[in-house]
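Ticket #4471: structure export looks truncated?
Reporter: QA, pipeline team
Priority: medium

Steps to reproduce: submit the single chain below to the structure queue and open the exported record.
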Amino acid sequence: MAEHTVAIFHVEQALQGALRRGVAAGPLLERAGISPALLDAPLARVSQAQYGALLRLLRRTLRDEFFGLLERPLPLGCFAHCLRLLVRAPTLGEAMRDGLRYFHGLIDAFAPRLRVDGEMASLSIVPHDPFDRASGYAQRSFLFFAFGLASWLAARRIPLTGVEYRDPGSPRGADTDRVFQTRVLYGRPQYRLWFESRWLALPQVQNEASLREFLRAAPTNLLVRYRDRTRATDRLRRLLHSRLHDELPSLQQVARDLAMTPQTLSRRLREEGHSFQALKDDVRRDAAIALLQRPDLTLLDVASGVGFSEASTFHRAFKKWTGVAPGEYRQRAR
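Actual output as written to the record:
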């Protein structure tokens, strides 16, 4: 199944450290397989592999584990060294506390804190430096990677009950709600993740062997490593993707296949922050972006591969999804 794509917004944000240090963005983007011209298309998206490649290039080029987003760079190797400490912890809670103590000594700009209050726990970011775009992205990235690592350490997705962001709202296409799979509240004093404290008692199940495999694919494998496959959104996405070559089914048809009424399916999708039509568009868009990277396929092949019988109809739909026509997107991506 085609992977979720990453909004160009995140590419732009990740480049802030390089630009601040006077490193040209164009060559970095091209080496990651991302056309610099896509920065001019606010709705454009890239693959997870491309975004992960960019982060690795930023890390190596800037010699900073945090991509140059903070004034004080994090020395290369500190992430792997921290993980070697975490895989020795017996429980997820102890691993998280060990990790936060480790980064307290490396990061001056903010302090990550784990708090437990009865049945609820939270991971929050307490800022020390004045807030700006780069530090905001650094704080959000720290929470995102901490959440991904916690799920990896326990070998299951840790369900969140809420997310708080300092930002006034979510940029278009940033996918914050989809990534965390819960409601995000904006305009809050701190960045914070909420979850049930009982998850901290889960055993930490990773070891040195699994760590070596994990590090080979990091950070790409943290983007959508563990998903709740029981959610209506994910079940519907898999079903729609299996039928992309044909005309996509109606709400009534997929509801029947998922053993629900159309009303129940619509309600479940609303609760998860989606609509049926938007999800169909997302599945087609992500699959089309993947197919456009294959030089052996014509635009008509790509259109047919995502369920369009006419190239002109696909052209209009793709431009609506990404702000770029499919031919132009392919040319820019090359």
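Status: closed, not a bug. The export was complete when the record was re-opened. Leaving a note from the reviewer for reference: The chain is about 50% helix and 10% strand.
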